[in-house]
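Sample intake sheet
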Amino acid sequence: MENDTQPVSRILFITGGARSGKSRYAQELALQLSPTPRYVATARRWDDDFGERIRRHRQDRDERWTSLEEEKYLSRLPLSGQTAVIDCVTLWLTNFFVDTNQDVERTLEACKKEMDLLSHMVQQAPGTTLIVVSNEIGMGLHAETEAGRKFADLQGWMNQYIAHLADRVTLMVSGIPLIVKPGGNETTGINPISNKTNPGYFPE
C-alpha cells in the first residue's frame, strides 16, 4: 500500500525576553528538522557597529546554514519547502516602524499582510517549516518615550497575531522552553531539545 502522507508544514513561534535563549533554541530546532536550514536575518545596518554585530552573528552559523537577509518583505524569499529561522520579528517591525514615520496602524497593516502571505505559503507548500523568533518587550520596564510606548504596543499586537497563526507557540524563560500553545510534539515528531548544552550563557 502506497504512503500518501505529505511532509508536514507549520509555523513555530518562539518568543521571550532578552537573552532568554530564543535564538539558540530556534537554531537547534531547525537543525533537528533539517540538515540544511535557512536563516533569515531581518536586521538593518543602522551603523558600522550594527554591521559588525551582523557579521559576527553570520560567522556563528556553520556551513549547514544558508543565510538570507531581508529587512521587510519576507514573503518574497524562496522559503517554500524549506526549514527556516526568521530572526527576529522585533527588528523586522522596527524597519517598518521607522519607514512609516512611527505610524503604528500602517506598520501593523503591512506586517500582518506579510505574515498572511507567509502563512498561505506554508499551507500550500508541503515540507515548509517557519520558526519565527520574537521578543516580549512589554514584560520589561515601561518605555519612557512616546515612540517607545507605541512600539511596545505594536510588538504586543503583532506577537498576538503571529501566535494566532502559529501551529505551536513556545515561551522561553531563562533558557527553558515552555509550550504555551501545543501542537508541535504531538503532530510533527519534534523532539525535546536539551537545555544542558552550553550551560550558563546562550548568546542571541
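Comment: Strands lie at 10-16, 38-41, 66-69, 83-87, 129-133, 168-173, 176-181. DSSP finds six helices and seven strands in the chain.
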